[in-house]
Amino acid sequence: MIASLVCGDSDSGPNPGCTGYSIQSGDDSPQKFTISGNSIQTTSTLIDYELLSAQNFMYFLVVTASDDPLTDSPKTGSSTVLVRITPLNDNDPVFTPNSYTAQVCVYWFITSGLIEYEILKFLGCPL
Known about the structure:
three-stranded antiparallel β-sheet; mainly beta
């Protein structure tokens, strides 16, 4: 559920309140939103944030509510519902660069200081 809709009218008697909702405009094709009862929901059409253009990060849905009169045609009222699309953490981590090289220096202790220096110098290790 994205949003819960609430409407009312000042009728009294057997016809109080709103009986139906519909989306009049603001949705894409294929349809991304639907109304079930009094709640706006997403359809089975996936909304992929990375594929949206900047203008589609927000949907302004014009929703109409109607009553069910006993004698006259239905009375309606409209409201704009802002649906803001936000990114979901749905991407795998990526290493940059994709490979690394590591160097491990092993210090050998040889009794002669000259030999120890030459080995470390050859390995490129800090002295």
